[in-house]
Every structure is written in structure tokens, then in C-alpha cells.
Amino acid sequence: METLELIDKVHDEDRQGEPFAPIAIEPNIYKKKFYIESYGCAMNFADSEIVASILSNEGFGATKNFEEADLVLVNTCSIREKAEATVRKRLTEFKKAKQAKRGMLVGILGCMAERLKGKLLEEEKLVDLVIGPDAYRTLPALIQDAESGQKGVNVLLSREETYGDIAPIRLDSNGVNSFVSIMRGCNNMCSFCVVPFTRGRERSRDAFSIINECKDLFDNGYREVTLLGQNVDSYYWVDEQKDMVVTFAKLLEMVANISPLLRVRFSTSHPKDITDEVLFTMARYENICKYIHLPVQSGSTRMLQLMNRTYTREWYMAKVDRIREIMPDCSITSDIIAGFCTETEEDHQDTLSIIEYSKYDMSYMFFYSERPGTLAARRFTDDIPLEVKKRRLNEIVKLQNRLSQHSNFADIGKTFKVLIEGNSKKSENDWAGKSSQNKVVVFPKASYNVNKGDYVNVKITSATGATLLGEIVE
Ligand code: 5AD
Ligand code: SF4
């Protein structure tokens, strides 16, 4: 009860325009302090907020200083080797802090915990707790085990866990936009990807708990929610009486109907699953943002087959056409992998040309990194030399930068409805916010009486590759 009152207080302060502080602002009422650091995808950041909620019920308050924490947690990512290397380095730093503070516990959460299981605890003695993505409810018991000198490990994956009933505690929030997890796990078997092994089978969260969370956010001043899942388009929920089926399109509509002032985004879509019904729902609601993250991975049908993506180059291009036909102003972004097993120069050229065809506003671009246990690691040889992977990646990045810049320059002279998120990074005299298309827009505060969380119309006057600059218009 105490915790809930405190959370309300934080939100109240936020509504008055104070910078949002996590629950650490009144640490004295808590018996102990925890520090949490998150890596990887948005899903992981959303999970850390569930963990914060579980811990606050146990009397833990958040701190931003790991050296004073009783419990240090790292929510980790396994998607590429580099992500894991970063976490390992950080864990050795925490090990030192642990030596300086008696009784401090260090725990690893998330995908790396799932993948490496007891290894970090037993062989490398880097951590006291290892907890997989479906085991966060057991955290309090595992902390007790670790405090009494036993091993605190739970990496069991579940077919049901969605944490649907747990109200997340927002960490590091700007009080305007928030992630809302709608499903967990993944049933796609992309051959390069470790996620099905670290996050288990796909399951959808109770639609009503999603709506309640979004309503609650709106009532607390939030103006944008991003519905999260590894593959949101396969969201599917049937209520207990089996008289109501909620598809992703239906869920989008339910969230959009909370208020026209609440913007809705979602991530990530699999090109094979995004339906016309979703596209038409997006087009029908002004507050569903015109933005689709539609990872292509490769532009070569042969590569796509090896990657087990279940679509061809032509099929993907037709999907892009369909999006543009239904929503001409929709922004499309992508994930791209350079140098997957056996990739030829011709395959690489196919990737470059599909990027050009799709005119992505932005892409996340990677070179292939083999992950142990994946289908690709078992079936194919990681045979593209690193320098070739890097060169191809460079070519992809260069092309994408050109397209992003071109897209931003094409916006000069246009007016966008922008949701203000806070001060711009560079100046307190400027606001920063986002357009429906997810582009960052920066503009002078001037004498307008507006605040973060407000919508304003901004006319774009200039642009860089990453930002649109403009002025408020009536
Ligand atoms: N190597 C490189 N990139 C990868 N991704 C997933 N697995 C790998 C891997 N083994 C990329 C994909 C995915 C994004 C989240 O990370 O592009 O969409
Ligand atoms: Fe990383 Fe994937 Fe796990 Fe997210 S789900 S943390 S991207 S491995």
C-alpha cells in the first residue's frame, strides 16, 4: 500500500512538470536499495520495470548509484556477441563494488541468464543470482536463498507467464511515453536468432490488463504507449468464456479508443504476419502512429530462405507497396544483417536494392554474429570473413544514411503534429518531440505556453540526417 501511494506521488509531481525521478526520490522508507541496468531490446527495458515492481513490494527502493545498492541487477541481451561482451565487462566492475560493500548481491537477468544458466555463477563466480525472463516472480525467494549463501538460480521458461497482473514501476521515464508489453516469447525460428531459446514460446497477455495499464498511464499524464512484443502481429487472446477473440488489429483499436490524445505505437512486426486489417486500423485512427518497423534482414530470396524468414524478396516488396497504398504518409524502418552464411556479392546487392526500393527512414544495421545453439550455428558455416562483413555493412550504412537524409530533407516545408517529450538535448530553450512517423522534431519554445505531453503543430524549416528542425505554427 505504502509503495502504491508513493508511486502516485511520483506521478503527481510529474504532472506538475517536475523532471520525473524513479522511486528513489524517497529511499528512506525502503529497507533496502536496488540498482538495475538494462541492455538490449525495449522488451528488456519493460521487463526491468516489472522487476522494479516485484522488488518494491519486497521493500526495495531504486537507486541510481550502484555503489550504495544492496542488490545490483543487470538485465541482459544475447542477440549478438558484442552485447554479451559488454555485459561481462560490466559484471567484473560490479564484482569489484561487491568486494567494497559487504552483503551486496549481484544478479543477472534476461536473455544472457537464460542462455548461460549457471555458468556465470559457478564457473566464473561473477554473480549471486541468475534469473531467466520468465522467473522474475521468484526473485524475492531467490534473494533470500542468496542471502543465506545458497545459489539463487531460476531459468525455467514458461508457456503462460505474461506478468499481466503486475503493474510496472516506470524507471527513468519522461512521463510522456511508455512501453507496454503485450506478449512474450517467439515462435518464429529465424535461423540466426537466439530469442526463441532465451525467451521461449510465444504467449499473449490478457487484453483487459493491457487496456487497464494503458488507461492508467493516460490518467497519469502519459500521452504515448508503445505496444511491445517480439512479433506483435501474431498477438491473439481469447477470454476465459471463449466468447471474445482479440487479434492485434482489435487490440490496436481498443487502445486507440482510450483517448484521441493517447498515441499508440507498436514494435516489432514480422512482414509475414502484418495484415491488411492492421493496416486499415492504423489508417482509420489518427492517434495510431504512421510508423511500421518491418525488419527485412536481407534482400536476397536465397538468404531469406536460409534465414527461415518465410517470405521472398518480391513478397516483402509487395508488402511495402501495400503499406504505401493504404497509408502514403507511413514511415517504414528496418533491421538488416550483412554477411549471413554463404552471402555472395550478388545477395548483398539485392539487400542494397531492397533498401533503396523500400526507402526506409531509418534502419538498425548489423553484421552477422553466430549465436551458439541457433539453427544457423548448427546447420551452416559462418563463412564470410569479418572484413567482408564489415565492408558490406558499411555500404548498407552509407546507403541508409543517404536515404534518411533524403527523407528528412523532403519534410522541409511540411507541418507535423508533434508530441512534446521534453527539452531538446542541446538547449533548454528548445523543445524536442516526435512526429507520428517517429521522427525527432526540435523547435524553439519561444513564447508559446505549452508543456511536455502537449501536441503542437510544427512547420519544418531545416533538417539533418537524424533530426527535423522547425517552428510552432497555430
Ligand atoms: N547477428 C546479427 N544480427 C542479429 N539480429 C538477430 N540475431 C542476429 C545475429 N545473430 C538482428 C536482427 C534482428 C535484430 C533485433 O537483431 O536484425 O531483427
Ligand atoms: Fe536481446 Fe533478443 Fe533478448 Fe531482446 S529478446 S534482450 S534483443 S536477445
The stretches of 5 or more residues where confidence is low (pLDDT under 50) are 1-27
CATH architecture type of the largest domain: Alpha-Beta Horseshoe
Mean pLDDT: 91
Mass-distribution shape: globular
Observed structural traits:
single chain, 474 residues, alpha/beta, Rossmann fold, pyruvate-formate lyase- activating enzyme, OB fold (Dihydrolipoamide Acetyltransferase, E2P), 6-stranded parallel sheet, 5-stranded mixed β-barrel, globular, disordered N terminus, binds 5'-deoxyadenosine, binds iron/sulfur cluster
Explain the overall architecture.
This protein is α/β, with parallel strands linked by helices and 474 residues long. The chain has 3 domains: 3-154, Methylthiotransferase, N-terminal domain (Rossmann fold), CATH 3.40.50.12160; 177-406, tm_1862 like domain (pyruvate-formate lyase- activating enzyme, Alpha-Beta Horseshoe); 415-473, Beta Barrel (OB fold (Dihydrolipoamide Acetyltransferase, E2P)). It is built from 15 helices and 21 strands. The strands form 6 sheets. Strands 2-1-3-4-5-6 form a 6-stranded parallel sheet, sandwiched between helices. Strands 17-18-19-21-20 form a 5-stranded mixed barrel. A 3-stranded parallel sheet has the order 7-10-13. Helix 3 (81-100) links the parallel strand 3 and strand 4. Helix 13 packs parallel to helix 15. The chain starts with a helix and ends with a strand. Residues 1-27 have low confidence and may be disordered. Bound molecules: 5'-deoxyadenosine and iron/sulfur cluster. Residues 79-80, 192-193, 295, 297, 335, 337, 366, 368-369, 371 line the site of 5'-deoxyadenosine (5AD).
